[in-house]
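Internal tracking record. Fields below are filled automatically when a chain is submitted to the structure queue. Please do not edit lines marked as system-generated. If the sequence contains nonstandard residues, flag them in the REMARKS field before resubmitting.
Queue: standard
Priority: normal
Entity type: single polypeptide chain
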Amino acid sequence: MANLTRIKILTTSATAAAPSNIYTGELAYSYVGGSQANNGDRLYIGTGNESPYASTVSVIGGKYFTDMLDHVHGTATASSALILNGNKHVNEFNTAALKIAASGALGAAVAIDSIKDEDNMSSNSNTALATQQSIKAYVDAQVTLQDLDVAGDSGTGAVDLDSQSLTLAGDTGITTSASGQTITIDLDDTAVSAGSYGSQTAIPVITVDAQGRLTAASTVALATALTVDGDSGTGDVALLTDDLRIVGTSNEIVTAAAKSGTDVTVTVGLPDDVTIGSDLLVTDNLTVNGNVNLGNGSSDTVTTSGSMTVGGNLTVNGTQTTLNSTTVTVDDPIFVVGGDTAPSSDDNLDRGLEFRWHNGSAAKLGFFGFDDSTGKFTFIPDATDTSGVITGTKGQLDVGGVKANTVQVGVTANGEIDTSSGNLTIDSAGGTTTIDDALVVSGAVTLSAGAGLSVGQGGTGKRSITANAIIVGNGTSAPTERVSSAAGNILQGAANGTVSWSSIIDGGTY
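SYSTEM-GENERATED OUTPUT FOLLOWS
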């Protein structure tokens, strides 16, 4: 006989109560004698969430239920389930008010012996039968026409359909009439003559009553003036008699008016050549197709809150240029700093970009660029600028990856250090390399001659392990081995932590 692995579920002979300590999907059985009043001879399963045990324990079967099915099919048996025979028959069926019993052999036609009239029988009599006439009289007595409830925007009412009729009455301005099955609701005429009121020179005047009807309509002449205010001066334009003129300023603004169909369009623009005698303030977009020269005077300024487009070259000859723009876009892919010609000597000044920021408590000046003293690119978040020489503590970089010669950090993958070619050597000047976290090696490991990995260093302390053995920890000593003695065994742990092989899975008791 082949070796077997046996699984035993939780059982009990001590209590008929449902278990309270099973997990979701776990089975348990009580073989205490079962009855309708207790929970014996029943099979349970845990369902629902675990905290720590299953939140619900459900009955899914057991000897108590199978005993109810252990009788001849088609024969009604006391305290048992109802099972039909092959012809879907049962020999008798009895309730408090209806009894059906077989009139012949099992499977023959059945007859109704009696139907009890519960309203006309005494507590121990079943001889009074309900007749067709008594049932009809009872139903007729229970059925009556119901009232029709009526609700309006305000108030409610009811119509007795046995004796009353529903009346629809019109309010002010509304007339109702009924003919046969038709009810007509009509709006009353008012004194207003049908037609249109108002024109280009007349304004309609209408009167509306509380029911929303037009009770009067007329017109009044249009005599409205348009008041026009300028930066200086004001005036009224009579809309029926006056014209509104829009004129420009010589060499600064030009205007043109044109009528197309019923529309009149006024165009306001700049002349081809614009001369501005003082500062230029632009609050909207400005496009210049020619060249713009600024800085002929030491106090000349250009201020714009919109956009300015220069189709030619823009030359600024000043000591300082300030751009108060939220976004600056430059098509040139390369910025040149340090002058527009090659320097003839070392000025010992750093080159780069400065930026202003705030750390929440104080304003800071940041810098990233070329450090002239070291010849290296640097980043200083809290910098001091002394006439073009930047000093301060170097900051940290947060980037997706860094490549230095062939060494790559975070380039191939996040958290990975590798090389694009050649080998990678880690060599600390102090002679010690420390790894704070767990070390995972996916390739081969080569240790120097005589080196080994002991138990204290995470090794097994063994040079070989028995075939098919499971090793079990033994504290600081070398682990012990466990070899199965038979096919089908499984490894189990005891309450004291001892690990051993067994062919039985025993759920225990509850």
